[in-house]
Amino acid sequence: MKQSGQLLFQREVQGLRATYLARAAILVFTLFAHLQAHHSQMELIAVSAYSTAGFLVSLIVIWLLSRDRAVRVAGYGGALLDIGIMVALLSTWYASVGGYENVPSAYLLKTSLPAWGFILLALNALPIRPAYPLIVAGGFVLIWEGAFLIVGQDPRTIYTTSFVDAVLTGAVHPSFLRAADMSMLIAGAILAYLTWSYRRTIMNSIQFEVSNAQMERYFSPNVVSRISEEGRSLGGRRQNVAVMFIDLRNFTSMSENLAPEEVVQLLSDYHSRMVDVIFKNGGTLDKFLGDGILATFGTPEPGAEDALNAARAALEMNAALMRMNTERKERGAPALSHGIGIHFGPVIAGNIGTEQRMEYTVIGDTVNVASRIEGQCRELGHSILFSGAVRDEIGQRLQTRAAGSVRVKGKSEPLELFTLDPP
């Protein structure tokens, strides 16, 4: 189940528990109230019967909900139960004062049913299902209109247009009393909208959090924050970027002597340390390439020091690998070595792929050249190599020195490579 669906499910279960606890409390209150004051033994028996039955049903449903069972049945069943409670309350009240034979049916409309209806309506908004308050509101209208139908067929009914007479006597003011219908429908619609809006808010919030979590896999935290605040779409565009390839040396032969779990643990440890350095220097993790990494500096937004940040990250990666090797030596494990290649130039950066599977990445000749520069690290005996384009961007801010001239595939002219001296 998706995160949003799971959270909404939990909220609904919590709300349903609260509604059933409230129903149980209402039924207990109703029972004790009639024990203290009742007009007939039949009234007490009827109230005791449906209060006890409703209370036991509420306890059973609460038990089922504690195990996340019968949730949808509990929701719709609870709304129907509330309609049954309103019918029971209305009929019990009327019967307790003498019933149709002794009391004009107009007194059906003089009860406190609208007040109880609003209470039950509010309870049905707690599970944040728009349908529940709508069902209760519709049920109340049917009950209230049914009462109007009974009153209209009673020859003893007296109609009035006086508000005072409608309140203080047995006369009926249809327009005034039918306001309860309209009020209940409006309240039900408002609560349905609020619950729908709350559900949408939860889903949007979770989608936003998931989106941020996914971006945090690739971008440094400050970049993620800026993207979130600006709400920018990461569309494809051409820009200058520092592209870095990192690759572990002799990893294939080393992994042949390790259990699969040890290989995964080694790569996780190495990748974690390198990615921390990338993010620290404002870089972007493009992807893992087996035992290697493709990172960029200058995505999604280019800056004046992208190449310099990449070079600094390379030095810090060497330092991080030295610390890792110190720890490995203490465990009797062999030391690791890696090669880092950097090139600076134009790329196409953006979301590449299909609607079903898309990733933010960079493509272009700059990416290919960076990969080939990294491949020369073993040949030239350096852990860090970069192109003249990177050297020009760095200027005098780091100590660079020539590492040799090589021919790379796809280039007609030799490529001058440089390396960094540790600070």
Keywords:
Alpha-Beta Plaits, 15% strand, 423 residues, alpha+beta, 2 domains
Summarize the structure.
By secondary structure, the chain is α+β, with helices and mostly antiparallel strands. The chain has two domains: 3-213; 221-420, Nucleotide cyclase, GGDEF domain (Alpha-Beta Plaits, 2-Layer Sandwich), CATH 3.30.70. The protein has 14 helices and eight strands.
Write the layout of secondary structure elements.
Blueprint: H1 3-36, H2 41-66, H3 71-96, H4 99-102, H5 113-123, H6 131-153, H7 163-168, H8 174-216, H9 221-230, E1 237-248, H10 251-255, H11 260-280, E2 284-289, E3 292-297, H12 306-330, E4 338-353, E5 358-363, H13 365-380, E6 384-387, H14 388-394, E7 400-406, E8 415-420
Parallel strand pairs: 4-6
Antiparallel strand pairs: 1-3, 1-4, 2-3, 4-5, 6-8, 7-8
Helix pairs in contact: 1-2, 1-3, 1-8, 2-3, 3-5, 3-6, 5-6, 5-8, 6-8, 11-12, 12-14
Would you give an account of this structure?
61% of the residues lie in helices and 15% in strands. With 423 residues, it is an alpha+beta fold. The protein folds into two domains: 3-213; 221-420, Alpha-Beta Plaits (2-Layer Sandwich), CATH 3.30.70.1230. Strands 1, 2, 3, 4, 5, 6, 7 and 8 form an eight-stranded mixed beta sheet that branches. A hairpin with a 4-residue loop joins strand 4 and strand 5 (358-363). Helix 1 packs parallel to helix 3 (71-96), helix 1 packs antiparallel against helix 8 (174-216) and helix 2 (41-66) packs antiparallel against helix 3 (71-96). It is elongated, with a radius of gyration of 37 Å. It starts with a helix and ends with a strand.
